[in-house]
Amino acid sequence: MLFNSNCAEGLLSWFDINKRSMPWRDSKDPYAIWVSEIMLQQTRVNQALPFFNRFMKAFPSLQHLAAASTQQVLKQWEGLGYYSRARNIHKTAQLVIENYSGILPNDYEKLLSFPGIGPYTAAAIASIAFDLEYAVMDGNVIRTVTRFCGIEQDTRKIGTRKIVQQKIDQWIKGYPPSGFNQAMMELGAMICTPIRPACQSCPLAFKCVAYRSNKTEQIPYTSKKAKRPHQAISVAIILNDKGEVLIAQRPLDAMLGGLWEFPGGKQKNNETSLQALHREIKEELGIEVSVIEVFMSLNHAYSHFTITLSAYLCVLKPTETLQIPTAKASDQIKWVSIQDLENYPFPKANKTITIALMKKFA
Ligand code: SF4
User: ipTM of this model?
Assistant: First the structure.
């Protein structure tokens, strides 16, 4: 067998000596491990660390998290992106209180039944928090296993991932699941890196097919992703005569649900940015605004599309009243002071606008 007991023992010893210290790694608390695994779903360790510490300070236990409001949870998640993770983690905490007396179940299938927990995360929590024998396959593991075994098929294909999963399901047998999984992921992150892997320091080098056949640059093969579509967005920073600004909350079931933003929307093919602004404000809020100046323009990339966001400083037309207009596309809208903007959770591009506004009107 290619991956034998010498490989497994070498891997575990390497991990023992070289593992990075992380707050969730130094703990066996299932709650901390669960929060970390949700954060790490789309985010690198170094990026997630400050958010993890902030989140755990705000919600030190599952009970604290379940008792918080959605707004409080989103505020702590602000800046980390993929906000459905925050809504799901909050919902799951409440389900655990309701159905499991506040204790995260040590059962893979039950973990899998919670919102936001897929096979990868369920396997990670089951193995790392409860030492259940489930092998975890993340991007680091896929890279390491395909190189080690010399698997040259496209890693984007489900068939290739199945082969990798079958391999690690075999390899983990008889070894401590928590240590084995973390060692595999850490080896991929620290040694078997995407570019120039440090094979000289790798405990698996003596058996690794890619290393021994000089193919570490060719493996893994991953086909190119389709280019992400681009959208131009126009938003209005509408000020009233008290110096307050109008913000709208996105519906909970929409993308970025529960977060706040400046009203506006997508530019259509035949429109200028300004035409889109006036049309969107009329459609969304039923009011007309006068543009004072172009405030800023910025680019932002989401996982499936990119945007250019143009923000305009506006006031209501004199014919319009200062009452809160009826929002049509949002959950609620509010006039808030510019200093108060920092108390609301905004998605990243809108957050950049709030910071610039606070500086301008400080
Ligand atoms: S020897 Fe090199 S390519 Fe093979 S698993 Fe180790 S780091 Fe990766």
Answer: 0.99
Give 22 Cα–ligand 1 centroid separation in angstroms. Answer: 24
Task: Please work out whether the CB of residue 187 comes within 6 Å of at least one atom of ligand 1.
Answer: no
- Kindly give the distance from the C-alpha atom of residue 154 to the centroid of ligand 1, in angstroms, as a whole number: 18
Q: Say yes or no: CB of residue 357 within 6 Å of ligand 1.
A: no
In 124-180, where do the E strands start and end? none
What's the CA gap between 122 and 116, in Å, rounded? 10
Q: Is the CB of 291 under 6 A from ligand 1?
A: no
Structure tokens at 330: 């949002």
- Taking only the tens place, the pLDDT of each residue in 2-52 is 999 999 999 999 999 999 999 998 888 999 999 999 999 888 999 999 999
CA distance 82 to 301: 12
133 in active site: no
Catalytic residue, from 9, 37, 109, 283: name it.
Answer: 37
Closest CA to 166 of 29, 3, 336: 3
Q: What percent of the chain has pLDDT over 90?
A: 86
Domains of the chain: 5-212 (1.10.340.30), 230-360 (3.90.79.10)
Residue 327 has pLDDT above 60, yes or no: no
Q: Return the best residue to mutate from 145, 146, 147 for the ligand 1 pocket (most ligand atoms within 8 A of CB).
A: 147
Whether 152 shows a pLDDT value over 70: the answer reads: yes
User: Across residues 141-161, what is the average pLDDT?
Assistant: 97
Q: Which amino acid is residue 325, in one-letter code? A: P
